Amino acid sequence: MASQDNVSRSPPANAHPMKIALVTGITGQDGSYLTEFLLQKGYQVHGLIRRSSNFNTQRLNHIYVDPHNANKARMKLHYADLSDASSLRRWLDVIKPDEVYNLAAQSHVAVSFEIPDYTADVVATGALRLLEAVRSHNIDNGRSIKYYQAGSSEMFGSTPPPQSETTPFHPRSPYAASKCAAHWYTVNYREAYGLYACNGILFNHESPRRGENFVTRKITRALGRIKVGLQTKLFLGNIQASRDWGFAGDYVEAMWLMLQQEKPDDYVVATEESHTVEEFLEVSFKYVGLNWKDHVEIDKRYFRPTEVDNLKGDASKAKEMLGWKPKVGFEKLVKMMVDEDLELAKREKVLVDAGYMDAKQQP
Fold it and tell me: In 16, 92, 136, 291, which residue has its Cα 20 to 30 A from 197's Cα atom?
């Protein structure tokens, strides 16, 4: 009886108590939602973060547990950079993850025209450094890490919609060209070395955690401030651009599902609906009883050297093979973002009225 009791209590020598994921870009919108999702699945999550003069972990504060609380801290952060190959390999050897999600990037399309060298180094060559680190780690340690590469619908660029996995790429920015390179590096490592590596070609995905210099969040952030009287004008570029917008919280599930399949492959993730920036303005301003035409002005400085007119995904493969489909539609997404930013503006108004904060000289 004693020996049976010992067997029932002790896990097998090769048992893995929980899956381990390594996430680059963990402090971003997608990284925070993916971390929440993986923690709910019982994972231990390790995130790589860049050193910065200012803390940039705000999106993770609600799930952060001090690492001294070892029993509860299932998310841990480590300093590394996609421009530093040695740091990538070192953390792979230390953490020994089962899955790697490469979400890190200089991800702003317009900014990529301003800093093209840096964008290419992080987005394209950075992905190559991480792939090579995974490959060499696997060989040296007899392991088989599963790798996810965050692609982008921007890779399709000027190719007409609908865009699927077989649609040719025609990138229209340094960011998009760099993402194309990362995509093909991932395919090459899969074909050349048998690496379990997937490309997720995600169309635009937004949330209240979206960066404030992305057009959707720029709109809802300004709208909240306009509604409470902290701002009167919003300056935008091309409002006829059409995008396939979904909810980031839905899309991280698709990332995870890709790595749970028997064989690695590439998948488009999209809502299969396209809406213009003008439609986003219409829905958001109407929701709070305002007319966007009273507040929005077009500023040519926000036009890009080469525009992408229309992105609309064909996600039939992801629906069929992964069983994935979006849960949040366009209007629900817009209203979710407006609600959050209206509350943020109300809190900001309290501080401004009390003299603790400047309204930042917004027009």
Answer: 16
Given 36, 99, 154, 253, the catalytic residue: 154
Q: What is the 3-state secondary structure (H, E, C) of 251-273?
A: HHHHHHHHCCCCCCCEEEECCCC
Q: Which of 112, 152, 178, 207 is catalytic?
A: 152
The CATH class given to the 20-210+244-274+310-328 domain equals: alpha beta
Q: What tokens were used for 166?
A: 């077989």
**How far is the first Cα of the chain from the last one, in angstroms, to the nearest whole number?**
79
Q: Does residue 152 carry a catalytic annotation? A: yes
276: helix, coil or strand?
strand
Alpha-carbon torsion 280, 284, 290, 294, what sign?
negative
Q: What is the pLDDT of residues 280-306, one digit of tens each?
A: 999 999 999 999 999 999 999 999 999
Residue 175 among the catalytic residues: yes
Query: From the candidates 33, 43, 101, 175, which is the catalytic residue?
Result: 175
pLDDT tens readout for residues 212-254: 999 999 999 999 999 999 999 999 999 999 999 999 999 999 9
Alpha-carbon torsion (96, 209, 122, 318), positive or negative: positive
